[in-house]
Each structure stands twice: as C-alpha cells, then as structure tokens.
Amino acid sequence: MFKRKKQEEPDGKNKRKKLEEILELPKEVISDKPRVTIVGFEQMLIENYKGILEYEEFFIKISTHIGTININGFNMKLEQLTTDDIMITGKIESMDLESIT
Amino acid sequence: MFFKILVSHLLGYMNIVVEGYFIERFMNSCISKKILLWNVKREKASILYANIGIKDFKRLKKIAKTTKCKVKIQEKKGLPFLIKRYQKRKLFFICLVLIFLAIFVLSNFIWNIEVTGNQKISQTEILELLEKQGLKIGSMKGNIDTKQVIQKVRLERDDIAWIGIELTGTNAIVEVVEAEEKPDMINPEEFCNIVADAEGIITEVKALNGIPQVKKGDIVKKGDILISGTIEGKYTEVSYVHSEGEVEAKIWYSEKTEVPYREQKIERTGLEEKRYGIKINNFQINFYKTLSNFEKYDTIIENKKLKLFSDFYLPITFVTKRNYETKVKDVTHSKEEATDIGIQELESKLKEQIGEDKQVVDKHVNVKEKEQGIEVELVYEVLEKIGTKEKIEV
Fold first, then answer.
1. Has residue B88 been placed in a domain?
2. Secondary structure (3-state) at B132
3. Contact B161/B177 with Cβ under 8 angstroms?
4. Could you tell me which chain B residue has the CA closest to the CA of A59?
5. Which of A33, A52, B157, B256 is the most buried (most CB within 10 A)?
6. How many CB pairs under 8 A join A and B?
7. What is the CATH number of the domain that holds B24?
8. C-beta atoms surrounding A84 within 10 Å
9. B73 and B121 within one domain
10. pTM of the predicted model, to two decimals?
11. Are B32 and A83 in contact (CB < 8 Å)?
12. Where does a domain end: B151, B178, B205?
C-alpha cells in the first residue's frame, strides 16, 4: 500500500505539472507558493501567506508555506489584512527571504 | 477587498486601539477567523490602531480575551452612526425633506415666460395670447401641449409667421417670428396707373410702360397720376396697359416746436434710497415703511425673479424700489441756446421719420420770436421715389 502510494505520488505531480503548463495557470493559484508584488518602494502586496510573525513600524516578518519574508522600512502600515493577502504601505528599505529547507 | 471596505463605510466601521503584548497573535487570529482589518498601524511595542467593520467588532471580544489584549473604540464612523447622531434633530430632517418636496413640486410648474423675437407685437399681447391657450405663469407643465398652443396661436394671428415654445426647467422660452407685411402685388396681366404717395416736386420720370403725365419740375399732390396706364390714340380705341416706371421727387418734411426762454427742469440731486420687498404671485411683502423721506422723487421699480441654476425659476420675485430725490430748477435760455435746443430736438424727430437710407438734399431752419419763447421750424428736402401702382378698374 505504502509503496504504491509513493510510486503514484511523483506520477501525479508530473501529471499536475503538465496540466498546469497546458492551461497556463498562475503558479500561486494552484500551489501554496507566495506571490510578492512591489509597486514603487511604497507599496507591497503579499499573497498566499500563512501569518504574521512580527509587526513593528520598522520591521515586518511574515511566514509563508515555504519560508519567511522579512521587510525593513519606516512607518509601515498594514493597509489590508485578509486571509489571502497583506498590503503593506510605507517606506520599504529592504527585504530578505528565508526559505525552510 | 476594496469593495468590502466600501460596504463597511456604509454599514459603519470603527477605529479601534488594541493594547497588549501579543499583538501579532491577535492579528493572526483575526485573519484566521476572517475578520477584516484595514489601515493597521503599530505604535510603540504594545499599541495597534486598526479599522474594523461594525459586525466583526462583536466577534473581536473573544479574540481579545484569549490573546489578553485590551480593545478600545476610538472613533465610530459610517452611515449608521451618522443617522444616530442626527436622530435627535428630527425637525431638521423634516425640513430637509420638505425642501426637496417643494423643489420637486415647484419644478412641475412654469414660473417664467421669456418672449424673444418680437418687434412689432408687444410682449404683453403675446403673453395674453398664450394665456388664452393655457400657457401662463403658474400653469402645470404636464398640462401644456406645446404643439397645440403653437397651432392655435398661429391660426388666431396672421402676423405671426412662426412660433416656437421650449420648456426648459420652469422656464418657457417663446420664440416668435413676425410675418412681414406684404405689399399688395398687382398681377402683371392686370392694368394699373402709377400714383404719387406724397406731395413734392418731380425731379425725374422714367416710364418703362405707359404714358408719363408729369414732367420734371411739376408739383404733384398725393394721389395724382404720374404714369397713366390708359392709352388713348387719335385713331384707335382706348386701350389699357400695366404701366411701369420710376418717379423721383423732392419731398419736404417739416416739424415745429416751441422752446420757451424760461423753463422748469426736474433734476436729480444724487441722493438715493433703496427699498426692498418680496412678491409671491400677487402677494407683496414690503420690508419698508411706505413713506419716503424725500419730498419729491422718481421711483424705479426693478423686479428680479429668483432662480435656482439657470433655468429653474421660482415663483418668488425680489422687488427693489429705488427712490431718487429730485429738485425743480429754473433754467433760462438765451435766444441762440433756445434755437439750438429746438433744432436738436427736431433733427432727431425728423431723422426717425425719414429713415437713414434716403438722400437729404437741403435743410432749412425758420425761427419765429414770440413773447414766451421761440418757435423753430425745421424743413428737410429729401429725394425719394414716390410711385406706387394702383389698379385700374375697367
């Protein structure tokens, strides 16, 4: 039973990947990978996130399914907070990503 | 997203302050319970400002308890709170509704009629005509069938060539085109004479058809035949023609006036007072005492219709009454001054009579002295065509 499943899984993933490629679906819709959009240096939209780990005016840490996003800046506000996305406005200085391996 | 915030503006939202040490946890649990937060701002380590919808706020209490945060309402915004605030001012709302109703009702009536394009027919005459057909100030807009009014007016009056009625707002714009008076045309197949219209000395006769009865230098009276359409030959029978031609004559126009040496002139002293009033239909409210402070004065009354926007006239007129103080002044003229005044007066009178396009050949001034004043007579000699056609009855 276990073996079968393990054998099927990569097969299923392959099929799914092929289907995605044929349909040209955006990756963040199907998978749980986050999508980060930055407009200028003042606005940032993070979709597909898990939760807020830390929020200060100058530092925001957001967890996603594949790692964490750290954002440094000044006067940062959370413009929108919904289950799917976060909109950050303010002066964004730097951003780094930490992936969970 | 944006739509949700817009809806919460309508349904009401609050500006809250969250105080506590686990603010991230508070936010995360809000997100997981699908509570919408926006404009989130953190201040210092333990304070968070956020906006939240009115319905979500009730669910917030549980989360606040579990995350050990204190929630305070800073400001209530949105429509429901606005209504609550104004609930005590019922009269204000009633008045607001009444005003809107009044405007709505008043907009169904006509409060102003503008007549344009009339030159010979007076405005009051046209307004009377329209009133007969039901279009008057104060009549319902819905009851007026403009096409029918136009038809009836045109049937009634021959001197109106075209009439257009446009209802815009509470304003009725009536455009009138007057019919030009047609001269009586004589059929070229019928026979006619050419007859003088005025007294004068003939200067030129051009007969194209018919026999000229006058020569250059003849004096003619009104009604004299200038070119005859009856031809009598010595050996033939009497025959008739449609005579044609031009006759030019010198005509005199004269006017007389008397200018007294001593005159009492009424002059304005420059002092002025204004009185105001309001007129609703025929009911007038005056904001002043009826008597004026001046002994003698001219009054000029100005009526101004109140209107909203450009076309929405209201049935209220604003009346301004201006009183100008006047004084009687004795003026004496010398002989020359008096004649000058007389000539000026007569000149403008004569010019009006003659018209501008005609050729003035000569001017004469006759002056007669009298006891009280001076009599001035002004004579203009004008070259003019004086022939008109007159039918011959055979």
1. no
2. helix
3. yes
4. B42
5. A52
6. 49
7. 3.30.70.340
8. 11
9. no
10. 0.43
11. yes
12. B178
Residue of B nearest to A81 (CA): B37
Which residues between 82 and 101 in chain A have a beta carbon less than 8 angstroms from any beta carbon of chain B?
82-83, 85
Return the SS3 of B93.
helix
Q: What average pLDDT does this structure show over B167-181?
A: 82
Number of Cβ within 10 Å of residue B283's Cβ equals 7
Nearest to A56 by CA among B16, B20, B42, B30: B42
- Using a CB-CB cut-off of 8 Å, the residues of chain A touching B13 are none
CA geometry: angle at B327 spanning B326 and B330, to 5°? 145
Residue B269 inside a domain? The answer is: yes
Minimum Cα–Cα distance from A76: chain B residue: B41
B126 within domain boundaries = yes
Q: Are residues B32 and B71 in the same domain?
A: yes
Taking CB atoms and an 8 Å cutoff, what residues of chain B touch A80? 1, 5, 38
Please give the residue range of the domain that contains residue B121.
112-178
Q: Which of A58, A78, A84, A91 to mutate to test the interface with B (most CBs of B within 10 A)?
A: A78
Provide CB contacts within 8 A for B310, sequence distance 6+: B169
Let me know if A22 is exposed, middle or buried by CB neighbors in 10 A (0-12, 13-18, 19+).
exposed
Given the cut 0.95, state whether the ipTM is greater than it: no
| Total count of domains within chain B | 3
- pLDDT per residue as tens digits for the range B97-147: 999 999 888 888 888 888 888 888 888 888 888 888 888 888 888 888 888
Cβ–Cβ contact A58 with B under 8 A: no
Please check whether residue B27 touches A, CB under 8 A.
yes
B380 located within any domain: no
